[in-house]
Amino acid sequence: MGSGQKSPSGLNSVPLANAVLCADCEVISDSAGETCGVCGSRSLLSLGRVLGGNIEGRRAVLLPVDDAELRNRFTVVLNPAAANLIQRSRKRRQLALFEKNASR
Question: In the chain, what are the domain boundaries?
Answer without folding.
Answer: 1-54, 67-102
